[in-house]
Amino acid sequence: LKAAFEGRLVPQDPNDEPIINVMNKFGKKPISNLELDILPNGWEWTKIGDITSNITKVKPKNYFSKEFRYIDISSINNKLHKITKPKTFLPDEAPSRARQLVYTNDIVFSTVRTYLENIALIPESLNEQIASTGFSVLRVNKLYSHKLLFYYCLTKKFLQPLNNLQRGTSYPAVRDGDVRNQPVPIMPITEQLRLVNEIEKHLSIYAEIESSLRIGIFKANKIYQSILKIAFEGRLTNKNKK
Q1: Is it the case that residue 242 has pLDDT exceeding 70?
Q2: What is the pLDDT of residue 215?
């Protein structure tokens, strides 16, 4: 991920339309900040808020006639970065935080304890359902790939400044505006697609390696327990040996 957002994962193509041209069409301007890293040719810095759209707030009882699915922070597996435990409510039983209408491919980013990395993409099965106001919901516009922004949200480059911005001790959090104010590198649209393909190819290899390691650790633990069992049954040493 670090290499991807530094322009080292895929080569730049001089035939790609510079992203500055596309930004101009949408009335967006890049960030001019000498403190930001130098980017490859054809790339610019922009703000999260300039590549995302506003989110509709609703009251479930005014929107749903029957039960709906609700995503809160506990719904997310922060190791897999997936929504694994959405809740189901009737409209009249909706929690007070159930207000954000989400769609497929939206990114939900927990603004509470950002270091826990409760980040996930909304799957098709949860299209047009409700997320907690404890999330910053990032819905990309035509300037950015939703998958690429999701991967950027997992980088230290994005997370560390937000971790530093958290306010409060018992309930440390950032504001939605803090998230949308964060800089993000933006590159030609076609390069974004190449980056996503390359990232996912590498991550699939990583997943295979991780799976193999988990199996190996499981087998090692079984052997370890077997050795202890034999030891405490008196079968580990030869008692007749002199």
Answers
A1: no
A2: 80
Write the Ramachandran bin of 152: left for phi over 0, alpha for psi from -120 to 50, otherwise beta. Answer: alpha
Prediction pTM value = 0.84
Provide the 10 A C-beta neighbour count for residue 46.
20
Are 130 and 57 in contact by the 8 Å Cβ rule? The answer is no
CA-closest candidate to residue 118, choices 78, 153, 155, 162: 78
Amino acid at 237: T
pLDDT at 120 exceeding the cut of 80: yes
Dihedral sign of CA atoms 26, 32, 37, 39 in order: positive
Question: Contact, 102 vs 69, CB < 8 A?
Answer: no
Burial (Cβ within 10 Å: 0-12, 13-18, ≥19) of residue 223: exposed
Interatomic CA distance for residues 54 and 222, integer angstroms? 52
The band of 212, judged by pLDDT with boundaries at 50, 70 and 90, is confident
| 7, amino acid identity | G
Go through the chain and tell me how many residues it has. Answer: 242
